[in-house]
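> @MW can you paste both from yesterday?
MW: sure, first one:
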Amino acid sequence: MLLAYGGGSIKKNGIYDTILEQFSKAGLAFAELSGIQPNPRIESVEEGIKLYRENGCDFILAVGGGSTLDACKAIAAGVKYDGPASDLFVNESGVSPIVAAAPLATILTMAGTGSELDMGAVITVGEDHKKKVVMHPLLNPRFSILDPEYTYTVPEHHSMAGVADILCHLMEQYFTPDANAKVQDRMNEGVMKVVLEDAPKILANPKDYDARANIMWASSMALAGFQFVLGKPMFPFPLHGMGHELSSKYDMTHGVTLALLTPAWMRHTMSAAPEHLPVFARFARNVLDIREEDDAKAAEDGVKKLRAFYSAIKMPANLREAGVKEEDLEVMAEKAVENGNLGILTSIGKDEALQIMRAAF
């Protein structure tokens, strides 16, 4: 077995010792891959593939947050592929060469990415730190252990960045043209409301078991396939597409990038495609409890209340406060759309991405 983890926090909080005790009881031999970075790099994937093969492993156990889980999904595909790991990324047509993968299981220690219950991963590649996607049904974990107590020691900043990531996953699937998907939308609204209600409880008490459990469950449900599989259209997530460039350039925590961009993207879309104002108004009323009959006013009030939530969970107020340099915006906007325009309610090319980033600055 290949046991993979990140910076070593699992050794401080006791999870590592618990795992090794269970391995010993079961008589399981294992190799270790440690030090997987936030925004995991392909070098960790290549190291994991090498360790897996050299030690004759037959299973991967990923212990950590989304970065560790994502790296292990790429490793799982790479050990069954004869070529370089860089071949495994989804191409511009949405096609991947993956035809086999090693079995993978996860023990989640930080809620946010939803990687514990989906088939995708994001890996950082090259000197420009470009984010690339690995995705295939074979990469779904065989099982995932979700114990809220394992998230008690996650630092406040990372816990709240995870909250912003969860919320963005839900929002980007929610803000699509009306597809008569009432069940999906109402499920989504309910999960979003839980996130908004329980995140402040974790700030007040990091060991609030129920709040941690609800956020962890929301993380898993946000990308579990219920939206797209049940009839929502697939599309290039605009906020993730732009946010990845902020992470690439500044090594910024993923969820923070999404919190910074979301209000600006909402206002841009409401202006560029006013025919879709009703969905933003519905979000404001059903998720944020805005009581305003006029759709335009309700939608704007929703943006303001969402910004207030991000402030309450201690996200930076704008890109400038987060350390972004204005002169970098144009290059990041161009790179965000180098594989095609983003979005679905309105198309976002370089000019539109730059407008959004400047509004968020």
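MW: second:
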Amino acid sequence: MVRKDKKTIYFIEGEAPGLFGQKYSSRDYRYQDAWGKNQFNSSFPASLVAYMWSKGVKPVLISTDKDNDIIHEYIDSDALLGIDPLSENAYYDYEADYYPFEKYYYADKKEKIDLVMINRITQAPVRGLEVKLTTLPDNATKDLPDSEYGSEIVVRAPTILFLACSICSCYDTIDGKNKLHELLNTIGSEITDWGSVRQVLPHYEAIKRAILDVSADMTSKQIPLILQPIWKTSRSLRDLEDQCLDVFVWSNLAVIQMTLREVSSDDDISRNQRTVIWLYKMLWDFTIFGKFNYTDTVNRLSYKYKTDKAFSINGKLTNPFLKGPELESPRITKYEIKNIILGDGQKFLSPERRFDAYLVSHPELFE
């Protein structure tokens, strides 16, 4: 039994509130403010990965081949996180700086990434990941067969920054920059006003081809970038399926493919197209100056849209990426959630979103 307020927790008996595997973390789960909706949406997925590791269940890695086709593989959780998630050396740092990327860009402020895994012995960051806890199905696919389900994904502008930096890190030598510059072709020097739709749009197809050339060139060097756990509901969207939890991981090159899943416009620049243009401009400037100006790129190349997000795609567009046995029958059951949320931690959740609300309203899952 636990008495709680926002700042203080008093343990009267039993196990302290916590999440599986996270012995060392920047969040103290004994306190209620570590269980807010924004915190839970990244900390629960990290523990789900650790729990799957303990059971020998590997997340699904969405990556690309040399033809830029999507392929599915399985990735060990220690390879995903850069460290054994149950190791004494594993530290989970949330909403944190990812120093390996910061040397590649200028910005008004350094952007935080959702999860940084740190080796406690060396103090070195070993992986930076964006985290997207998503519902399966979304409204666009709820009336379709299970095999056609998908989840909506909203991609933040900083995710594209991290994508660009991950590519820069693969070409961070004199020869590497020269090669990247050649792959990007001469488009960057042909555009004088990157903020002008009229100037940029005629070059879009060439920009896209150049980005795909870069992607094909670095197939063997792609790394995990987005951690996407899914929680599967009933067709009515009101209850969790018995087989309800699994984890998909998008490589940085798979994220490029995500941006291309829409119908292009002939007379305007869409959010998805703008994202590809942002990426090209960042990489082009890196080959010229050794760094790129992230703030200037995003603000100047806004093309009438707000810059709070890069783009979003619905479940019909994510389905081809997620399609497979794990989509139809996730491998972790709702009865195992009590093995991930420990010490009555679910009592600290605020039911502001459907997953949190479901857990709060179904105490029998924790008996």
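> thanks! The mean pLDDT is 90.
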